[in-house]
Amino acid sequence: MKKTLTFCLLFVSVLSFATERIVTGVIKDATTLLPIESVSVSVENSNLGTISNSEGKFRLVSSGDFNTIKFSHLNYQIYTHVLKSGEIEFEVFLEPRTFQLSEIVVRSKPVKELLSDAVKSSKEKLEKSIVLNAYYREFVKVNEEYTSFSDGLLDYNIKRKSGASDLYVNQCRAVKLTDAPTDEKEKKRESFYLYDVRDAVAEAYNFKNINRILKSKSYDFEIETKADDKGNSIEIVTILPKEDVEIHLYTGTVVFDTKTKLILEMDIRKSPKHKIYALDVDIVFLRFKIYEEDRKASYRIDGDKYLLVYNQNKLNAYINFKGDFDDTFEFMSDMVVSDYKEGEFDFDRSKRHKERSLFSAGNHFTEEFWKTKNSILLNEEEEKILSKLN
Predict the structure, then answer these.
(1) Which of 93, 101, 203, 208 is deepest in the core (most CB within 10 A)?
(2) What mean pLDDT value characterizes the chain?
(3) Distances in Å between the alpha carbon of 28 and those of 37, 39, 53, 76, 124?
(4) Residue (of 376, 375, 373) closest to 22 by Cα position
(5) Where are the alpha helices (DSSP H) in the chain?
(6) Which pTM does this prediction carry?
(7) CB 277 within 8 A of CB 254
(8) What DSSP character marks residue 84?
């Protein structure tokens, strides 16, 4: 039976204000005391969650009361923090996991098969009929200057096996440089996005980059197994582009759970040694050349569920379009899943987001959600960037 979602923003706003609990903190390495980035922070026995930023800072928000928070990261022991009465801010010190490192062996074909099996298992296991509540943000630079920033609270309604989904923007903001020109060429340049916010989930669900690498003969692979003192183990596959191949290639790592064969983390980027062979496309009205391309994603196993946690994309490209602009663009996007609802839901499809960028949705918010909801906190450098934008 399908469920119907009825939205009443005023009612939700009042209810949240009455019962909302917010806690903030900083996560550090217990040995080095350095901040830890991309730690999964979640409310125990709940779907709510967020991640820490590059300074180890996080904010966790719940519309109901809670007292136990779980912190997890591949390289650290899982830590559970029980909140004291009235506690709203604290530091967390995570202990590094102790791994027994196995011997590294180059096994080109067998490792490809192992990685292919992990991709297949992960695609099959990822929840399909589900609504992901996410925080999404995007920065854009043109010719080394930041030109725009946008973020928002989004719903991805996933119905298809590929992860393809309808996107609904609940709240959003968009800011740009105060003195940015507003002529037609500038508007065309602003509308040019190589990443599509609507595909943020599908990209992480279908593992396209990994499959493209697996189909190529231009790579070797290394694999190592790491087991901790509790008997849990992970497989780390390193992607090695062949040095004698003169085309643009990727490098990176994919980590998957040994027992379930489910991918926990992937970090794929352009191979530095193959940058001189950057993809250069020249067609009638368009020429573009991709210099940098980074993709990161993390997933978690929650009981019998397997869920996307975080997806990040970075792209640096030169673009010449119909003579309207001739510039170097840098696109950066982050998406973190803050909650989810299982099942099939009826949305008003006429209200789904239809543009490639979130920036095009403009400013549409009932509260300063970047301060009151689960999001990726801006670090000090990003705060300075945003202060220059208006």
Answers:
(1) 203
(2) 87
(3) 9, 10, 12, 11, 35
(4) 373
(5) 9-19, 108-125, 184-190, 200-206, 208-215, 369-372, 380-388
(6) 0.89
(7) no
(8) P
